[in-house]
Amino acid sequence: MPDLSTLIVGHVTHDRYGDRLRAGGCAFYGGLTHRALGSRVELASVVGEDFCCDHELRRPGLELDLPPRRGGNTTLFHNVYPPGEYRVQTLEAVAEPVRPSAVSPRRRDILHLAPVLHEVDLNAWLARVPARWVGINAQGWTRAVVSQVSGPARVGTRPWQVSMETLRRVDVACLSEEDLVGQGDLLARLRAAVGVVVLTDGERGCTVYVGDRSARVGICRAVSVDPTGAGDVFAAAFLHAIARGEGWLNAAQLASAAASVVIEAQGASAISLLPELVQPRRDRLRATAEPQPCGSAATAWGD
Assuming Cys at both sites, which of 144, 150, 222, 290 could form a disulfide with 158, CB separation 3.0 to 4.6 Å? Predict the structure, then answer.
């Protein structure tokens, strides 16, 4: 199959590491992953006049088309990972919304909507850009600023009010157990409306839901240096694989392998290694652990 055309949408952020800023955000990690795996990638994003990580968008061999529009501030996060707990995230600045009028409405192979904090209007983008596959990272619609007494604002969750009609226009939805906190029956609604739902759960791997069937896939063991971006890489690799014709379980194994690569270095610096490391890691995962069926109506199904 020829290279896929992928449009990925969402803020490229500044992520604070001590006194240093690095590029981040679902669309940043996801866009580099699609590109590393062979897609032609357009990035629809907004950054501020203060954005200082242009060099990270021009990595040799991982160049992204459609540079981010500039204006206002760059969304700025600080992430802390307490042992055995969910990430603690604070927000120091936020950029303007990413509007669909900025891109051509021509058809793509993949439309990947990957917001960090409600900057992407799901209905507007679905109406603007037709695609063979539509994938979403649900996280950016489940998060919200929950408190700010002084200084950076604490990021938490709020219920995502999305209609079943809208969700039925999505082919693949990726989210984590953390994203379900405070979301009521969101997982059930996603499963009822979206063809494929993938729920990741850190070192416990992921569960792939297709209709009334589900199966668990384990992780590729790796030494974690920085877990930031692992879920974003996973989602992009999964969506890329199924758009190329992979079965759902094969796609989940490839995505697990890709996530194991990115966590071995700070920020996105290891994504350039995906072409050489993903396949052997996926092969090892297949050899050491078969997918496990789960749920009363579940069976392991073939690819």
Answer: 144
Please give the helix or strand (H or E) that residue 275 lies within, else none: helix 274-288
Block residue for tokens 């690569």:
261
Residue range(s) defining the domain that contains residue 121:
5-293
Q: What is the pLDDT of residue 290?
A: 56
Instruction: Determine, yes or no, domain membership for 302.
Output: no
Cα gap 275→6, rounded to integer Å: 18
- CB atoms closer than 10 angstroms to residue 292: 14
Residue 301, pLDDT score: 41
Q: Report the CATH number at residue 149.
A: 3.40.1190.20
Please tell me the predicted confidence (pLDDT) of residue 299.
Answer: 34
Distance CA 186, CA 180 (A): 7
Kindly state the tokens that stand for 250.
Answer: 């094969």
Whole-angstrom distance, CA of residue 192 vs CA of residue 172: 12
Residues 6+ apart with CB under 8 A from 172: 133, 134, 135, 136, 194, 195, 196, 197, 198, 238, 239, 242
Nearest Cα neighbor of 71 from 43, 100, 95 is 95
> Strand ranges (DSSP E) for the chain?
5-9, 13-17, 20-24, 40-44, 46-47, 69-70, 76-80, 88-93, 108-113, 131-137, 143-147, 153-157, 172-176, 196-200, 206-210, 213-217, 292-293
Low-confidence ranges of the chain (pLDDT < 50): 1, 295-303
pLDDT tens profile 192-240: 999 999 999 988 899 999 998 999 998 888 877 878 889 999 999 999 9
113 in Cβ contact with 125 (< 8 Å): yes
What is residue 254's predicted lDDT score, i.e. its pLDDT? 95
Number of folded domains in the chain?
A: 1
Q: Residue 263: name the closest of 216, 231, 217 by CA.
A: 231
In a domain, 300, yes or no: no
